[in-house]
């Protein structure tokens, strides 16, 4: 399996800790998708109900419920949609960082740009993330957020910087 091969979620315990105790280390070149949701524990993504379906350096898929993530008009909140898109793109970038720079590498977001085309009203929305550019220093992604009827709700472009591990001081 190569680093860009998508990994689908098996039926393993998502709450099991990573073997070395560092939660993000499960997102190395061959991410353990069965534990990807564990990485989200205690984060905004967990509070939004985001779940990881597929993850690789070149993208992936995550879902989020509309219920609980609405604005006062009972429509999916644009900020929640952007958080979903940024989460999948950032996790894919982290896998890319570990692929090109090895253990200890990090990925940080540098830019997010979203266009909302229509409103989500019910059920789950799915973020489909695909790489636009996979380099050694920068990774950029396009995320399409769709409703259960596959209608396009939002398009989000996310750019990240890939950071090599810092030498021990």
Automatic annotation (TrEMBL):
Disordered as annotated region, ranges: 1-28
Biased composition (Low complexity): 1-25
Keywords: Hydrolase
Domain of life: Bacteria
Residue ranges constituting the Thioesterase domain according to the UniProt record: 76-152
Record-level GO cellular component terms: cytosol
Example of a GO MF term: 1,4-dihydroxy-2-naphthoyl-CoA thioesterase activity
SUPFAM superfamilies, per the entry: Thioesterase/thiol ester dehydrase-isomerase
Family, per entry: Belongs to the thioesterase PaaI family.
Protein name (record): Thioesterase domain-containing protein
Organism: Brachybacterium endophyticum
